[in-house]
Amino acid sequence: MSHPTPVAKRHGDRKAAVGNVGRPPVAWAVPGILFFAVFAIVPLAIAVYLSFCEWDGLDSPTLTGLDNWTRLFKDSEFGQAAWLSLLLTTISWVFQTPVALLLGVWAAGRQRSRAFLSAVFFIPLLLSTTAIAMLFHALLDPNFGVIQTIGPWLGIDPNVMGSSTGALLVVAFVGGWQFMPFHTLIYQGGARQIPEVLYQAASIDGAGMVRQFFHITLPQLRHTMTTSSVLMIVGSLTYFDTVLIMTKGGPGTDTTILPYLMYRTGFQTYDLGYAAAIATALVVVATSISLIMVRLSGFGSMRSTREGM
């Protein structure tokens, strides 16, 4: 009868020790759960309650049943704002995702200038959204901004903010310019987790960089893309300060998206009950889109190979 060698015994003891390591106790999550409940669940519950009330912000809220919701589904302005929000979200995703993906994969490499260029590229993420909106508002001023000089050279109307299409594209560009570095960072982290052996095997088989990108990098970043897309979509649906500072919902109502409509309804006309209904509808739309993406992408069934370690 053979006995296990000391090396095999140590190896078995190590595997048993690792296998006995369980999840952290639930108590570790209590601070996070309390923080989320106080600053997310409770305000959301209050907003849902106010959506069934009539309230001017001064007197006590008065329950009115489904009046605000009936008005919501009949309001053409709400329908236009919802359409503009979805359009802005789509433009932002189409604009930001390919650029952030390519930059993230590049930043995960070992180029000599990578660290310096990555640091420069991430600067907009550190700036205030208000400051960025004011900066671009000054640059795009048709009378005094830089756009007045360089616009004709580039074939761009200096009054780009005066057209409905131009104003919406500018809002999408400014938001992308600020938050694209964040998504680049997500893709950079995902790209660095791809095993190098996959690329080595592909190189031996004669696959070039383009084939490696489409057959290795993209499939391996599928869940990373889902994470980035969910964050991007929720962020785009909640654009507010950029619209407030740059366009104020104009020209006309061509950039009046749902968050700005909610602000204008609640804090300019003091119809806070209806504004709460708009806010609740926005939460429902954003949550539904996120859940659909997670469901269709298979992200919810993803499991870590290091879970419990």
List the helices and strands and how they pair.
Blueprint: H1 6-20, H2 30-50, E1 53-54, E2 62-63, H3 67-74, H4 76-107, H5 114-121, H6 123-126, H7 129-139, H8 147-154, H9 164-192, H10 196-204, H11 209-220, H12 222-237, H13 241-246, H14 258-267, H15 272-297
Antiparallel strand pairs: 1-2
Helix pairs in contact: 2-15, 3-15, 4-9, 4-12, 9-12, 12-15, 14-15
Characterization of the model:
There is one protein chain. This protein has 309 residues and is mostly helical. Helices cover 70% and strands 1% of the residues. The chain has helices spanning 6-20, 30-50, 67-74, 76-107, 114-121, 123-126, 129-139, 147-154, 164-192, 196-204, 209-220, 222-237, 241-246, 258-267, 272-297, and strands at 53-54, 62-63. The chain has a two-stranded antiparallel ribbon with strand order 1-2. α14 runs antiparallel to α15. The chain is globular and about 70 Å long. The chain starts with 5 loop residues before the first helix and ends in a 12-residue tail after the last helix.
